[in-house]
Amino acid sequence: MTRSSPTSSTSWLPITLCGFGCAVLFWLASRFPSPAWILAASVPTGLLWLRSAPSPAREQAQDRAEHEKLDNAAGVEVQQEVQGLSALCQRIAPIWSAQIESARHQSQSAVEALSERFAHLSELLAAAISPEVAADSDSTACLLARHKVELEIAQVLVALQFQDRVSQMLGHVRDDIARLARHLDEGDARHVDTRAWLDELSRTYTTPEQHAIHRGRHGVRDSASDITFF
Q: Where are the membrane-spanning stretches (predicted)?
């Protein structure tokens, strides 16, 4: 139940009393006709009209109050917009950073692994075409050398596959940053839903490690035992 404020009650009290006084004076004028009663009744009537008539000062005060109300509402919307964007940045920035750091670590490891694999592959090829092995194409040494070369090439392909995964990880971060930039350009930041944004980002992942980083767990690495071509 709403209660009228003291200020509102006080402002209506003079009007009520003045109206009651006018009614009494007009009643007396009707019972006891006299110009004096009519003149007396016209005085509070005029005061009542002046009291109820809008004045420039009152209109200015009402305009100021309305402007203050609109400014306060706009300030609340701006604050909500800042809080929504801040919450998103606080959640998304660490994920971007962790994904980039993981990509850097994988790149460094993959480059080192490739260098070692290529060096080992060169040694195996040199041994496979040695005069001793080439003299007997059906020898066990020749078959073993070919098998080792095949295994080494498979390991090289695995290392190259990790490079593809690194490119995918960086591509997902790049695309999400671009998505945020477009969102800000549209001027719709106050409607951002952090949970929905993160869920949409997670649906772009292609590796278990990306999902682990997204959930705040690090150190999960994809198995290198299988070769997948993209």
A: 12-30
Instruction: Provide the residue count of the chain.
Output: 230
Pick the closest to residue 161 from 107, 125, 205 (CA basis): 107
Mind listing the pLDDT tens digit of every residue in the chain (230 residues)? 445 544 444 455 665 666 666 666 566 666 666 565 555 556 556 655 555 555 666 566 666 767 666 655 554 454 444 457 778 888 888 999 999 998 888 888 888 888 888 888 787 777 766 666 556 655 666 666 677 777 878 877 777 777 788 888 899 999 999 998 888 887 666 677 888 899 999 999 988 889 999 888 765 555 444 444 33
Element (H, E) at 132: helix 131-134
Q: Which letter does DSSP use for residue 189 in this model?
A: G
Q: Is 228 left (phi over 0), alpha (psi -120 to 50) or beta?
A: beta
pTM for the full model? 0.51
| Euclidean distance between the first and the last CA atom of the chain, given in angstroms as a whole number | 68
- Round to whole Å and give the CA distance between 100 and 167: 10
Distance CA 179, CA 183 (A): 6
